[in-house]
Specification:
Distance between the termini: 48 Å
Shape: globular
CATH topology: Copper Amine Oxidase, Chain A, domain 1
CATH architecture: 2-Layer Sandwich
Protein name: Copper amine oxidase
Order of helices and strands: HEEEEEEEEHEEEEEEEHEE
Organism: Thermoanaerobacterium thermosaccharolyticum (Clostridium thermosaccharolyticum)
CATH superfamily: Copper amine oxidase-like, N-terminal domain
InterPro entries: Cu_amine_oxidase-like_N, Mao_N_sf
Radius of gyration: 23 Å
Strand content: 25-35%
Pfam families: Cu_amine_oxidN1
Amino acid sequence: MRKMVAFALSIVLVISSISLVIAKPRENNRKTTRSVKVVSQRNENGQIESDDRVTEVKYTKFAGKMKANGREIKFDIPPVVKSGTTLIPVRAVVESLGANVNWDAASNTVTITKGDKTIVFDLNNSKVYVNGTEVTISMPAMEISNRTFVPLRFIAESLGVKINYDDNTGNIDIEDDNTQNSTVSQDVYGQTDETVSQEVYGSNDTDNTDNTVVNSVYDEQD
């Protein structure tokens, strides 16, 4: 009787081992999560309240290359794709198109100006204004590693530039026939990995009490 029980247990262990081996490859699916910790937020009276909630937003890294008028843009923090929407670090792309970007720490806003267009992202209220008029976009701006990410298509349509997607390579070409000479503080093209100036987002020494601060990680398994 004992031999039969031992034999049955050994069969169960073997089957369990096989099941684990079969299930293991699922862990190799390439997934990226963003761990977001809200350090502070404003109440309805505009006062700062602390909040220790932690949430996760799933997205994938943009795997292709991105060019502006034929020149490849280098990113220290790469674009991401969330729910089918490509989100770009605003300064690196926008300045490569000859636009100016300004970060106002007091109001927690990002302002993009090019020609007669002015786009303002109000990060406190997740609102966007184009030439003073509030508009609705498919996805609000988000912060990843102290970078402001915005929907590429919205920026392109607002600034009047064209986007060409290559379905075979995943690359994106941005074309602007009216690009002016930009005043990029650091080369955003292929000469350096230090492509995004911290100045537009606020330095690391800036007090972030009034901002929604996020800690972002790329949990990607190879």
